[in-house]
Amino acid sequence: MEFNVKGIQTQNVTVSVSAQDMIDSIKKANNFDASYNNYLELRDNGLYKGIDVSYHGSPDYEYTLVTNDAKQIRLYKAIIELENALEDVLQKEE
């Protein structure tokens, strides 16, 4: 059995987090994450998750509405724009 216990510890620590890990965490916290068999798509004034329901061969997607809230959609677009800008910066550094 495992328990999570909240506690406070005071230390001076430096933590390095990659920009992509930070963006991925923001996506996950807002239910905007995708995986190998699903993706997110803006369409019909909403944000939909396409889930691959095929077991082999060409993908066959079923779509479910994630949100049609305009504020959430703006947040999703901003996160994607930030992610694209990060990719551009990283490509220029190579």
Q: How does this structure look, described?
A:
This protein has 94 residues and is an alpha+beta fold. The chain has one domain. It is 37% helix and 21% strand. Helix 1 runs antiparallel to helix 2. It is extended.
Biggest sheet character: 3 strands, antiparallel
Our measurement of the CA-to-CA distance between the termini, rounded to an integer number of angstroms, reads: 47 Å
The number of helical runs is 2
* Overall radius of gyration: 18 Å
Please describe the structure with a list of short key phrases separated by commas or semicolons.
94 residues; alpha+beta; 3-stranded antiparallel beta sheet; 3 strands; 37% helix; 21% strand
SSE layout and pairings?
Blueprint: H1 19-29, E1 38-43, E2 46-52, E3 61-67, H2 70-93
Antiparallel strand pairs: 1-2, 2-3
Précis, in short:
The protein is of the alpha+beta class and 94 residues long.
